Amino acid sequence: MGTPEKFTEAMFANYRAAKAELGYNATYFLKMLNDRKGVGTARALLASPRHHDGYTELYKLQRLDLSVEALVLNEEWRDLFLPEELDIARNRLREAGCDETGRSLKSKP
């Protein structure tokens, strides 16, 4: 099982990847990470009844693999979250046509 500290590091790594690879600078997400750390940020975003802005942006960029939802479903981090939180993450990714890693389930022509 991963630790909350390592999960926070993984969240920062996804933030950096989105910025470097996509030019997406998620400033509110970064503030949340600094204030609440990784698990607290993930829980707050999953508790929202609507998709958070970062999820929406990553969806548009076809990179839900960098989403909080995909990260919490990673086997290393699952034990840090409640079953209900994992269900929310799983359902959001399924609604987007993705598997638990955030990769599209749609076949490519």
TrEMBL record:
Superkingdom of the source species: Bacteria
The protein's name in its UniProt record: Uncharacterized protein
Lineage per the UniProt record: Bacteria, Pseudomonadati, Pseudomonadota, Alphaproteobacteria, Rhodospirillales
